[in-house]
Amino acid sequence: MHRVVIVGGGFGGVSVARQLARRVSRKSLEIVIIEERDAHVYTPWLYEVATAMSPVHSETFVRRARRRASVPFFHFPGFQGIRIVHAKVESISPDGSLVTCTNGTTIRADALVIAVGSLTNDFGIPGVMTFASPLKTPKEAESIALQLRRLLRDIEEKRIEKATVAVVGAGANGVELVAEMAAVRKIFCDVQGLDMTRMRLVLCDSGAEPVSMFPASVQARVAKRLRALNIEFFGKTTVKEVAAGEIHAGDLTLPFDLLVWSAGVKSRKEPGEVWGLPVNERGRVRVANTFVVEGKKNIFALGDAVARAGERPDPQSAQAASAQAPYVAKNIIAFLAGKELTPFPGKKWQTLLAVGGSYGVGQVFGIPFSGRIAFYVRRLVDLKYFLSVFPMRHAIILWYRGVEVYGENDAART
Hints:
The protein is of the alpha/beta class. Helix content is 36%, strand content 24%. It contains eleven helices and 25 strands. The chain has helices at 11-23, 46-50, 59-68, 128-131, 138-156, 172-192, 216-228, 270-274, 318-336, 372-389, 392-413, and strands at 2-7, 29-34, 39-41, 70-72, 82-85, 89-92, 98-101, 106-108, 111-114, 118-120, 133-134, 163-168, 199-204, 232-234, 241-243, 246-249, 252-255, 258-261, 265-267, 285-287, 299-301, 306-308, 351-354, 360-364, 367-371. The strands form eight sheets. It has a five-stranded parallel sheet with strand order 5-2-1-9-21, with helices on one face. It has a five-stranded parallel sheet with strand order 11-18-12-13-14. A hairpin with a 5-residue loop joins strand 23 and strand 24 (360-364). The longest helix has 22 residues, at 392-413. The radius of gyration is 22 Å and the shape is globular.
């Protein structure tokens, strides 16, 4: 029996495991996932968790919202026969045949997959990790929700006159978060009979337009929606330092009561610095178009952790990792059978964003669209991911439970 060891239980790792389980008999292939966390996190829903703690919802609600964004590994439906090892990888042998964990466990591998994801990138800017709140985990999302709730309560009870919430980073995550905060602000002020200007929402980015990595038509629609939500956008703004209550960006100083850092991600140091794999200048593992690590035969890598040789980097996103996974699985099977590997053909990535309440912006097959239909298509993309990982019945149940909870937000905020 062959054994495939997957390091990382995020989008890439879980998707590869499920693809292998669907394609190969469990009598001929053992699949092992090594992951420190006890749950698989669906990060596209974290912005919903971060805004669930509004004054119109209880703390029980935010805990429900947090649970819906993650699935405990011990409860993974359809993963019988896939072994989950909760540990941190300490070392990998040069030939990829042995993986040693910090708890002393050593696991033999016929094929090894690196799918370790990424970390919040502070770009070495002083004060970011001290004064800003990242949004990468359910715990961080809940922390933001608590801080937002506190500010709203302080305004309601007149402990403060005004508050400023700033989000740095106008990529998809930053835009979805600040737009949902605007929806929270609206319902709060409507219920309390307050002027919305008492909570200022600010979005900053070094690019000239929000979501500058997306097509111009999407940028324009997002910018229009942000203006309609009364969100101030500061483009071409490069943060130089973050102090207590202040963002310093050249000649510009912006005060804040809550700062969320969503300016990008960086590769983990372990693949290059600890495990000795070849990486590029940004720390991403260098792989061929077959996702085989450069200079290796049986080590594969995908997702945020990789850069394909001679290709423009794929987005560091759930969408990209999920699209790469079937090719990684197919090539692992081919490698174990001594057959030729299949290159990844590349993809035209589709764009779908939730931009406050039940309003979305997207571009699919080159056609831009916005409004409720874009939001509902975005929800269907979420379902597509769950269907790719779990058996149909369980996928629909997990997706529906999340949509049901987050729908309570959207019904009040549209």
